[in-house]
Write a structure and sequence with these properties.
With 43 residues, the protein is mainly α. It is 95% helix and 0% strand. The protein has one domain. The protein is built from one helix and no strands. It comes from Rhizophora mucronata (Asiatic mangrove). This is Protein AIG1.
């Protein structure tokens, strides 16, 4: 029973962590883009 629950958690937590890292990376890109826009508008 233990290996079955482990594999179940692996399939449920696998994609969610990938999605989280994808969200974090996209947020970093967005923040950099915002900094660039603010810097160009100020100058």
């Amino acid at each position: 029973m233990v290996p079955q629950t482990n594999s179940k958690y692996g399939t449920t937590f696998g994609p969610s962590t990938e999605l989280l890292s994808l969200l974090l990376s996209s947020f970093e890109i967005l923040s950099k883009l915002a900094d660039f826009i603010v810097g160009s508008s100020l100058s």
